[in-house]
Amino acid sequence: LAHLLTLEGLPASILTAILDTAAPFTEVGEREVKKLPLLRGKSVFNVFFENSTRTRTTFEIAAKRLSADVINLNVSTSSTSKGETLLDTVDNLCAMGADMFVMRHASSGAPYLLAQHLRATGRDHISVVNAGDGRHAHPTQGLLDMYTIRHYKKDFTNLTVAVVGDVLHSRVARSEIAALTTLGVPEVRVIGPKTLLPTDVERMGVRVFHDMREGLKGVDVVMMLRLQNERMQGALLPSSQEYFKVWGLTPEKLALAKPDAIVMHPGPMNRGVEIDSAVADGGNAVILPQVTFGIAVRMAVMSMLAGH
Ligand code: CP
């Protein structure tokens, strides 16, 4: 791997190799295990042009556990506010010795632009990890979600998985669906109102449900999505209460899934909008383990990009 920009098009062998590489890293950080030296002497630049709690922090923890130097660019106080372009900013960070960029950006394709620029300027040794670009892709979220499913369900090839809510504006959903289909999940369901699903959603290889109760029947995994209001300029939105009534995951709706179904959410959650607190904090939820697994998965991605 030179960069990790998307999961679409990556073969099952690479996805599985990342999950397998992550497995022993779940132990790193426990008291008895020391830091690993795999990124010693490397500088990882976290460049987040959009807010983040989980992704930015777990990338930082992961890089530090691999012994990298981590530099977090505070974009809101950086010179981008004085008109400096993305590529000029990147050139300056390269001049400071960057070996890897972890980039989040509101514009779909921004990490591709960065990777292309590095190639065009002869800096192929610098890797780019997409930490979420617009509504396009969030590959490490997709990977940590696959890790979580494999941890709890062991085998992808006998599962029914439902992705529920605002798929249209969700980079997480695109990465999840790409990974689920590549890893051989026989039935991926997408559940949501027509207005929040892409018009060509069937081309993603999924079964579409506009009735949440129908869609949840017998599923093994429920992956909830929040309403991504920040990407809905001008859209006529239902109120939170209206949305919750029809599309919120309540204990009563979850009872239609298999009794041992796991409930996932990439975060941030909006309680009382797409998910009831009784579900978010209930026995089927694996939402916080997802966050923890994210550290190991990001360690795997960064160590593989560094050639290990
Ligand atoms: N899941 C996710 O990307 O969360 P953050 O926006 O907090 O990073």
Automatic annotation (TrEMBL):
Lineage: Bacteria, Pseudomonadati, Pseudomonadota, Betaproteobacteria, Rhodocyclales
Organism: Niveibacterium umoris
Function: Catalyzes the condensation of carbamoyl phosphate and aspartate to form carbamoyl aspartate and inorganic phosphate, the committed step in the de novo pyrimidine nucleotide biosynthesis pathway.
Pfam families per record: OTCace (PF00185), OTCace_N (PF02729)
Gene: pyrB
SUPFAM superfamilies listed in its UniProt record: Aspartate/ornithine carbamoyltransferase
Keywords on record: Pyrimidine biosynthesis, Transferase
Any GO BP annotation: 'de novo' pyrimidine nucleobase biosynthetic process
Quaternary data: Heterododecamer (2C3:3R2) of six catalytic PyrB chains organized as two trimers (C3), and six regulatory PyrI chains organized as three dimers (R2).
Amino-acid positions noted as binding carbamoyl phosphate in the UniProt annotation, renumbered to this chain: 54-55, 104, 138, 141, 267-268
Protein name: Aspartate carbamoyltransferase
Gene Ontology MF terms: amino acid binding; aspartate carbamoyltransferase activity
Domain Aspartate/ornithine carbamoyltransferase Asp/Orn-binding: from-to ranges: 158-304
Residues where L-aspartate binds: 82, 171, 226
The keyword Transferase appears for this protein: yes
Enzyme class: transferase
InterPro entries xref list: Asp/Orn_carbamoyltranf_P-bd (IPR006132), Asp/Orn_carbamoylTrfase (IPR006130), Asp/Orn_carbamoylTrfase_sf (IPR036901), Asp_carbamoyltransf (IPR002082), Asp_carbamoyltransf_Asp/Orn-bd (IPR006131)
